[in-house]
Structure formats: C-alpha cells, structure tokens
Amino acid sequence: MVSKDDFVRINDYVWELPQAFDGRMRVPARIYGNEEVFEMAFRDQSVEQLMNVAMLPGIVKYAMAMPDVHQGYGFPIGGVAAFRYDEGIISPGGVGYDINCGVRMLASSMDYASIEPYLKDITTAIFRTCPSGVGGKGAVQVSDKELDAVLEQGAEWAIAKGYGTRDDLQRTESYGRIAGANAGAVDARAKERGRPQLGSLGAGNHFLEIDVVDEIYDPAIAEAFGLMRDCVVVQIHCGSRGLGHEVCGQYLHVLQDAPRKYGINIPDRELVAAPVDSREGRDYLAAMTAAANYAFANRQILAHFVRRAFEQVLAGKVRDWHLHQVYDVAHNIAKIEEHQVGTQRLKVVVHRKGATRAFPPRHPDLPGVYRETGQPVLVPGSMGTASYVLVGTESAMENTFGSTCHGAGRMMSRNAALKQMRGEQVRAELSQQGIVVRTDSVKGLAEEAPYAYKDVSIVVDSVVGAGIARQVARVRPLAVIKG
Amino acid sequence: MGHWQEIEHTADLALHVWATDLADLFATAAQGMFAFIIGDETVAHTHTLTIKLEALDVETLLVDWLNELLYQTEVAGLAFTSITFECLTPTHLVAEVHGGPISRYSRYVKAATFHNLAIIQTPEGYETEIVFDT
Q1: Would the CB atoms of A415 and B6 count as touching at under 8 Å?
Q2: Is A78 an interface residue toward B (CB < 8 Å)?
Q3: pLDDT digits over A355-412, tens only?
Q4: pLDDT, tens digit, 9 for 90 and up, residues B79-119
Q5: Judged by CB atoms within 8 Å, which residues 4-63 of B form the interface with A?
Q6: Is B115 helix (H, G, I), strand (E, B) or coil?
Q7: A304 among known catalytic residues
Q8: d(CA B27, CA A478)
C-alpha cells in the first residue's frame, strides 16, 4: 500500500514516487501540489491509479498528477502522461468517456453594473436557447452527412454554417479542428446518440456561467486576452455528449484483444491499450479526434446561442453587448505532439485526462494573437466560486508536456455532498450571494455544491508555485445554468 | 434475491452487487443502475425490448449489458425495471426487458466502466463492483 512517506519531496510543489517503489512501474510518478494538495491525493484511489499509468509501455519521463487530482477510472482525473509514438501506447482510459470535455470563455467590454438589471433575463434567455439536462435535444439538428462533416471539420463546420466568426477559430485549441479525424471510424450507434444532441450542454458537472472579472494579476496579458476588470465574461463547460461516450465504449471493445496481440501488460482493464502506430491505435485516434471535433463544434454552437441571448436582451439597452472569444480548451484528450526529452526531440501522444494544455509564448502551435503571450488556460472553479484564467509557461513545456490543472477537483462523493445540504438550500445560499441559478436538476445543485470540491485557489496557487502556469485574471460568478 | 449498495467514489458512481447466480447479478446490477438514474420514480411497463449480446468474457458481457441499457435510455428515454433472461452464459445473453418513459431523471450516468472490474464467485453466489462514469 503506497503512502506519502514513499514519496520524495522534489521541491515545495512536486512530489515523486520513485520507479523502484513498484517493479511494474516504468517511470516515476509525480504529484504536483503544495503539501496540503499532496496529502489530499491519498484520500482516495488517485495514487494507485497514477501508479497504473506509470506501468504502461512507452511512457516518457513521469506519470503525472496535477493538483486537482482525484480518483477516476483508468487514469486518475488530473492525470497527464506522454507515450512515445514509435513504441508507446494509446489508451481510451487515458481520455475517458467525455472526449474533449472542455471550457470556452467569451468576454465583453460591458461592466457588471450596466447589465445587472438584465441579468435574470439574460440567464433565462440562455437557459431557453441552450438546451441542458439529461436527454435534452440539441439546438441544431443535422443530417447524417452533416454530422460526418462536423466530426471531420469541428468548429470550422459551425463557423461555415454561421455559428460564429473565423476569429473564434483563432482562439480555439487546435483552431477547433484537430487533423486526422475520420468519421468512418465512428460507429453508427455513436452517431445515432450524438446527432440529435449537437448544440446541447448535457448534465452532470457541465454548466454555463456568467461571471465578472474581479481581479487582474497580469494587466498586459489580460489586455491581450481581452479581459478587463469589472467586465462580464461567459464560460461554457461541456463536451462531446453521447457521441463521445459511445466512441470510448466502442474502442474499449476494439482494443480488447490488443494487449494479448501486442504483448502489453495492463494493470486495469479500463486501461486497455494498443500501440499508437497499430491499426487499432490509429483507428481509435481517428475516432477520438472526430469526437473531439464534435465537442469543439458543440461549444461553438452554444457560444452562438449565448451571443444571441445577450443580443436579444441587451440590444437597445447597452451600447456594446458583443462577446468576443478568449479561448476554448480541451480537458480530456490525447494528442500527437512534439516535445523535448533530454537531448531528443520526441513525437509523443500526450494524454490529458482532466488536465489542460498550457503552451508557452512563441510555441509554433499558437495563433498569432497569442504567440507572444502564451496560451490562455481556463480553470473553472466549483459552482458559485471563483474561476481563473492562467497562461502557459516554458516550465510547463519542460516539465509537464505543456500541461497544467483543469479545475478545482472533486474531494467529496456525490452522496456525501447530498448529505451536507439539499439542492434547495444550495440554491438559497447561491441566491444570498446574489448568484442567479437556472437548472432542471435541483438535486444536481447539491451534488455539485462548492464544498464537494477543493478550493480552486489552492489548486491555482500550486500550479503557479510549480511554475506550470501563471495567473492572469480571476472571475466570480453572477449566474449559473447547471446541466 | 440479489441486492446492491452504492459505494463511495469521489467523482463518479459505484455499485457493489451481491447475487445468487449470474442472471440475478446482471438483473440486480441493472436495477442498481436505474435506481441512480430515476431515483424513487417508477416507470410504467409500456415498452418491451429483446436484447442479444455476445462478449469475450463475463465481465465484458456485464459492461456491454449495462451500456446497452444506457444506450436505450439515452436514445429513447426509457428505464427498464423488469428483466427476464431467456439465456445467460458467461459470453452470451438474450434478455427481455420491460420498462417505460422516464418522467424525471435523478442522475445522469454516461457509461459503465471496466475499472477494476472482476466478477467473483463466492459460496453464496456472485459479487462484483462496478464504477459508472457520471
């Protein structure tokens, strides 16, 4: 049984379990976080799951957990691992069911005071036009042929249909369209599940939030991101809906025989894996990428309907209701990237499961608008608490394959959260703080209550302390639409 | 008769299932899963489906079974609360399931996972733990 005494303190924010601790581990495991965060990782199965990741073939440097780590299935949530393209694996368990669950942030030049009288109306308008909850149909209905185009073109498809501007693509990870997607690798059932849901938020921890910028830490970068103190922003948190879930399930099957076929020892069946450059590995990558593109399109469409809701309510009342995009990041994904490992430039597949890409200034994959600042990193807090905008760093590139945290990270089960407070009480508490709430699931409010999560500021302090992101701005919620 | 209990899981949902035989295990696991989804609500038995599945082993068959039911829940909005197995072996099943439209969802379940999944034979029958992505 692993304990914190088995770890070596590398510095105040990095803790390492040596490879020698378990003969099956191929690399050491590292946890990022201050001492408090590090100790929290031992409350559940996070560390055991991280050790499992360290056992997978072709893993490079370390199996890493970001400070928002908690127990998942397969990889821990907050897990980051890179595998060599030439002799490593790709695993659906390293991405999860909600492929490209992520966050998009839109910002405005409206200060809170100017929209305060209309906040409830805007929230209601968004709640009406952006479908949320279980089983909800999406805002956009597409044919089978159009769905294939969505899968291969991602947010570009949505822009071509009028759901946004090309500038939005500049401000989306991978420009909203990851190359290599193949709609033919996605089975009919996944498409059947995903086709009616395009343009919907979903349920669980997904949300749409109106916030106000209440702190600027780096004025120059905040300005480049279009963030101004006291101004209103919007966050959209959702993913690839039933399509992504089905793709993950489909490929857990397709890859089922791969460990035997390719001689891969897996410590957990959810970590079923195939060599990246095998037929099974390539097919999964093509299908997972297609699901990721669907998620980019989904958030693009939702952004369009959020903008329309702002326009409907504010036109003629406020001078400039325009919402420009800050960025859109993936939280659950595997991507082929090049990284410097020692003296070698390596092609790897970086799995980020509940983690965010955090590329530094001058990285060639960044668009011109962010080439000098580094990539915006969006870190939503728990419902009713602050969220942060960070920026990627060179240190993240050197140490964590250009990755950082993705949120607050749960620390309490849903049942335990329900025992603390009823949904109506949570709604009342949020109202007392002046936060408008719209949801079809009052019970969900209790399950997602702030006390079920770590304090996001501890997580952010940890990534900043570790140097794998820098603070740019903080926002606090004004209105929450919970799926 | 089988029974189930929810196990604490930080982020997702998990079930421990005890059953007298395999059919009981599969039916009880489905019962537990639908208890997550519809809570205390009941559904009318207006729909009947026949589900046929083949799998490499019994754990895969269990995951496939639960995910097949979740698929029907998502595309048709149905919950199934009465299950009869016409045939159930460790690699094959034919089931008739009865249920109806869900009027109010309690929780959203994305998928049944393979995480640490093992079906264990005990002197009393079978036991397993299933983690669901939510």
Answers
A1: yes
A2: no
A3: 999 999 999 999 999 999 999 999 999 888 999 999 999 999 999 999 999 998 788 8
A4: 999 999 999 999 999 999 999 999 988 888 989 999 889 99
A5: 6, 8-13, 39, 56, 59-60, 63
A6: coil
A7: no
A8: 45
Which residue in B96, B112, B100, B127 sits closest to A252, CA to CA? B112
CB-CB neighbours of A442 under 10 Å: 15
Given the residues A70, A206, A237, A406, the one annotated as active site? A406
pLDDT digits (tens, 9 = 90+) for A166-206: 999 999 999 999 999 999 999 999 999 999 999 999 988 89
For A452, the 3-state DSSP assignment is helix
- Beta-bridged to residue A70, according to DSSP, are A77
- Tell me the DSSP string of A402-419: SEE--S--B-S-HHHHHH
The Cα–Cα gap between A166 and A236 comes to 19
CB-nearest partner of A415 from B8, B56, B131:
B8
Return the exposure string of A384-408: e unless at least 16 CB atoms fall within 10 Å of the residue's CB, then b.
bbbbbbbbbbbbbbebbbbbbbbbb
How far does B56 lie from chain A, in Å, by closest CA?
9
Return the number of other C-beta atoms located less than 10 Å from residue A121's C-beta: 16
Token pair listed for A50 = 């991280």
**Closest CB to B77 among A70, A135, A256:** A135
Task: Please state, as a whole number, how many other Cβ atoms lie within 10 Å of the Cβ of residue A139.
Answer: 20
Contact A97 B110 (CB under 8 A): yes
Q: Which residues contact A391 (CB under 8 A, 6 or more apart)?
A: A218, A221, A358, A373, A374, A375, A376, A377, A469, A470, A472
Nearest by Cα to A150 from A284, A285, A250, A292: A292
Looking at A102-106, A321-325, A380-384, A469-473, which range is the least confident one? A380-384
Instruction: Single out the residue of B23, B31, B22, B44 nearest to residue B4, CA to CA.
Output: B31
Q: Do A97 and B71 touch (CB under 8 A)?
A: no
Give the closest residue to A191 by CA, choosing from A247, A132, A130: A247
Whether B102 has its CB under 8 Å from any CB of chain A: the answer is yes
Are the beta carbons of A227 and A216 closer than 8 angstroms?
yes
> Residue A9: is its pLDDT beyond 80?
yes
Contact B63, B110 (CB under 8 A): no
